C-alpha cells in the first residue's frame, strides 16, 4: 500500500511538473506575441509638460496641435511625456490622455471624479486610447497606441486631466499627408 501511494504521488508530481512547464512555455509565447512593437521615429511624438501649465514640443514651443503623418494610422504610435516643471506632483502633476475629441468633457469629468487617489486619471475606457501615469518633476512615461486605433472620420485630441489643467493643457491631433 505504501509503495502504491509513493507511485501515485510520484506520477502526480510528474504530471504537475509537466503541466507547470507547459503553462510557463505558453505564457512566455503569449508575452512574446503581445510584446509592444516599437514605433518608427516618424510615428513617435515627444511632449514636455512645462511651467505655466503648458504642453511643449522638444524645443519648448507651446503645443496646441500634434501633427502625425497619415501613414502612422496603420502603424504603432508612441507618445512620450516628460515633466519639466518644478512643482511637486501632489501640487502640480501632469499626465497625457489621448482620446476622441468629442468625449473630452466626459473624460475630464471622470478623471476629476476619480480624484487624487487615482491621480486624476480617467477610469472610463470610452473614447480613451491611452494615458500616461501622472508625473512629477523630471519623470517620464510613454503611451503606445496600437496600429489602426486612430479611425478616419473621428477627431482626436490630448489633454492633461490633473485638477485645473484641462482648460489650458489640451490640443488636437492632426494626421497630415
Task: Give an account of the 3D structure.
- By secondary structure, this protein is α+β, with helices and mostly antiparallel strands.
- The chain has two domains: 1-35; 41-176, Cupredoxins -  blue copper proteins (Immunoglobulin-like), CATH 2.60.40.420.
- It has three helices and nine strands; from the N terminus they run H-E-E-E-E-H-E-H-E-E-E-E.
- It has helices spanning 2-34, 89-92, 104-114, and strands at residues 44-50, 54-56, 65-69, 77-83, 97-100, 128-131, 140-145, 156-159, 170-176.
- The strands form two sheets. A five-stranded mixed beta sheet has the order 3-9-8-5-6.
- A hairpin with a 3-residue loop joins strand 1 (44-50) and strand 2 (54-56).
- The model is unreliable at 1-35 (pLDDT under 50).
Across the major sheet, the strand order is 3-9-8-5-6
In CATH, the architecture of the largest domain is Sandwich
Mean pLDDT: 85
Strand content: 25-35%
* CATH homology superfamily name of the largest domain: Cupredoxins -  blue copper proteins
**Main sheet?**
5 strands, mixed
Instruction: Outline the low-pLDDT stretches.
Output: 1-35
Please tally the β strands and state the result: 9
Instruction: Quote the CATH topology of the largest domain.
Output: Immunoglobulin-like
Distance between the termini: 78 Å
CATH secondary-structure class of the largest domain: Mainly Beta
The SSE string, one letter per element, is HEEEEHEHEEEE
